[in-house]
Specification:
The complex is a heterodimer of chains A (156) and B (299). By secondary structure, chain A is an alpha+beta fold. In chain A, 47% of the residues lie in helices and 17% in strands. The N and C termini of chain B lie far apart (128 Å). The chains are: A alpha+beta (156), B alpha/beta (299).
Chain lengths: 156, 299
C-alpha cells in the first residue's frame, strides 16, 4: 500500500514538472501593453511611438503569409534600424514560422545596412526575439538588455 | 476776222490742254509714281500700300495686308518643365492611386510612414531597396513594367553622391528611357535628393554640397529627358539649411513627422493628369463633421 501511495505521489510530481517545463507559456500576451511599455522605455535612440506603422506593411516587410498573423503591431525607424514587431500568430506552427522570419530579417538587415549604417549592426546582432505560445516578438533596440527586460515581463 | 477765229481756236485749245494737264498732275499726285492708276479704284488701303518706294508696284488687291509667310503649329504647347510648380488646389489620395515609386531607403519612408494612406500602401506600387543606387535600378524598373502606372516617382542619390556625373547621367538616362518605353503615358517625376544634417555634413562622407550638386544634375537630366523635377530639398531643410538634427537618427533618414512635409509637398506639386478629383477639404470643426469630404480613406 505504501509503495502504491509513494508511486502515485512520484507520478504526480513528474506530471507537474512536465506541465511546467518546455513548450512555452500558454498565457495571453497583451500586445498593446507590451508595445506601450517598450516604446516608453529608454531602450531606443528615439521615441519609437512616432514610428508606428500600418500593420499591413509588416507582411511584406517580413515576408510572412498574412493568414499566419491574427494581429500585429509594427514600429520601424528606417534610420536607426530599430524596430518592434509584435504578433499574435494564428497557431503555434505559424508562430514558429514567424520566429524564423524574424531571425532571417535581422540577418538580412545586417548584410544590407553594414555598408552605410554601421551603428545598426550591434543592435541587430543583439536583437531580442521571443516566442510564447502563439505570440512572437522581435525588438531591435539600442539597449538590448532594457528591451529584453520588458519582453520577459510579458512573455515569460 | 480770220485772225480772231484762229486766236479763239488757239485759246480754246490752250484751255483744253491746261485742263488736261491739271488732271494728269492730280492723278500723278495720288499715285505717287510714274505709272497711271485708276483713281476711281483707289482706297485708303491702296493709298497706304502705295506709299513711297520707288520700285513699289501698286497693289491690285483691295486689301493690302501682307500674307503671312509661315503658320506656326497651333496644337503643340511649349513644355513647362522640368520644375513642377505649386498648384493652387491640392490633390487627394486618388491622384496617387496609379503611382509607382522607385528608389532607395529614403524613399521607403514615404511608404513606411504613410499612415494617412495618401500614397498606396500596396507593396506592388513600391520598388525600393536599402542602399540601392541608380546604377542598380534597372531590374527594379523592369519589374514595374508589369503594372500600368500613370505616375512614376523616382528617388536616388544619397547612396551615389561620390560617383562621377557622366556615369550617373548615363544610368539615369537608361532607367528613364526604360520607364518611358514601358509606361509611355506616365508622368515621370525625378525627386531631389533630400538634405543631410549638419553633423553628417561635418563628420561623415555625405556632404550637403554634394547633395546640392547632385540636385542640379537631376534638373539637367529632367530637362533633357522631358521628365519632371520635384524640388523637395528645401522643404525638408531647417532654418540653417540642413536636415534638422532632432528629426534624424543618422543624419540622412528622418522621422514620420518630417516625412509628412514631403507627403504634403506631393499633394500641392503635381502635373495634372487630365482627370478630375474631388477637392480635398480641410478638417471641419466637430459640429460640421458631416460636411467633410475627402477621397482619402480613414486612417
Amino acid at each position: 500500500m505504501k509503495k502504491i501511495v509513494i508511486c502515485m505521489i512520484v507520478l504526480g510530481l513528474v506530471l507537474t514538472l512536465t506541465a511546467c517545463g518546455g513548450g512555452g507559456s500558454k498565457k495571453d500576451v497583451d500586445l498593446d501593453a507590451l508595445a506601450s511599455e517598450l516604446t516608453a522605455s529608454a531602450a531606443f535612440t528615439m521615441d519609437m511611438g512616432q514610428y508606428a506603422m500600418q500593420p499591413e506593411l509588416a507582411a511584406p516587410t517580413y515576408g510572412y503569409d498574412a493568414a499566419d498573423v491574427a494581429s500585429a503591431k509594427f514600429f520601424y525607424n528606417n534610420g536607426s534600424a530599430e524596430e518592434i514587431f509584435l504578433a499574435q500568430a494564428s497557431d503555434e506552427e505559424a508562430a514558429a514560422r514567424l520566429e524564423q522570419l524574424c531571425e532571417d530579417r535581422t540577418a538580412n538587415q545586417q548584410t544590407v545596412l553594414s555598408s552605410y549604417n554601421p551603428d545598426a549592426i550591434p543592435r541587430l546582432q543583439n536583437a531580442v526575439i521571443a516566442r510564447s505560445g502563439v505570440y512572437v516578438a522581435l525588438v531591435v533596440a539600442n539597449d538590448a538588455a532594457a528591451a529584453q527586460t520588458v519582453v520577459d515581463k510579458y512573455m515569460k | 476776222m480770220r485772225h480772231k477765229t484762229v486766236a479763239l481756236i488757239l485759246i480754246g485749245l490752250s484751255v483744253v490742254l491746261a485742263c488736261a494737264a491739271v488732271v494728269v498732275l492730280r492723278v500723278r499726285m495720288l499715285s505717287g509714281g510714274p505709272e497711271a492708276v485708276d483713281v476711281t479704284a483707289v482706297t485708303p488701303a491702296d493709298y497706304a500700300a502705295a506709299q513711297p518706294a520707288p520700285d513699289q508696284t501698286p497693289t491690285p488687291e483691295p486689301t493690302a495686308t501682307p500674307e503671312p509667310t509661315a503658320t506656326p503649329e497651333p496644337t503643340e504647347t511649349p513644355w513647362a518643365g522640368p520644375l513642377v510648380k505649386e498648384q493652387s488646389v491640392p490633390v487627394p489620395a486618388a491622384y496617387f492611386a496609379d503611382a509607382g515609386f522607385l528608389g532607395n531607403s529614403v524613399l521607403s519612408g514615404l511608404w513606411l510612414y504613410n499612415n494617412d494612406l495618401l500614397l498606396p500602401s500596396d507593396p506592388t506600387h513600391w520598388f525600393w531597396q536599402d542602399s540601392l543606387t541608380i546604377m542598380g535600378a534597372s531590374p527594379y524598373a523592369a519589374q514595374m513594367a508589369a503594372y500600368d502606372f500613370g505616375k512614376i516617382y523616382i528617388e536616388f542619390g544619397i547612396n551615389e553622391l561620390t560617383y562621377d556625373q557622366s556615369t550617373l547621367q548615363e544610368a539615369f538616362n537608361t532607367v528613364i528611357d526604360q520607364l518611358q518605353a514601358d509606361h509611355p503615358n506616365a508622368i515621370i517625376y525625378l525627386m531631389s535628393v533630400t538634405p543631410v544634417s549638419q553633423y553628417c555634413d561635418a563628420n561623415l562622407s555625405i556632404k550637403q554640397s554634394a547633395v546640392m550638386a547632385f540636385n542640379n544634375m537631376l534638373q539637367t537630366i529632367a530637362a533633357e529627358q522631358h521628365v519632371w523635377y520635384l524640388d523637395v530639398y528645401p522643404v525638408l531643410c531647417g532654418p540653417d539649411g540642413f536636415l534638422p538634427s532632432d528629426v534624424t537618427p543618422d543624419g540622412v533618414h528622418f522621422n514620420p513627422a518630417h516625412y509628412q512635409l514631403w507627403l504634403d509637398y506631393l499633394t500641392t506639386h503635381y502635373v495634372p493628369d487630365g482627370r478630375e478629383y474631388a477637392v480635398p477639404q480641410t478638417e471641419a470643426p466637430a459640429e460640421d463633421a458631416g460636411d467633410t469630404v475627402t477621397d482619402a480613406p480613414a486612417a
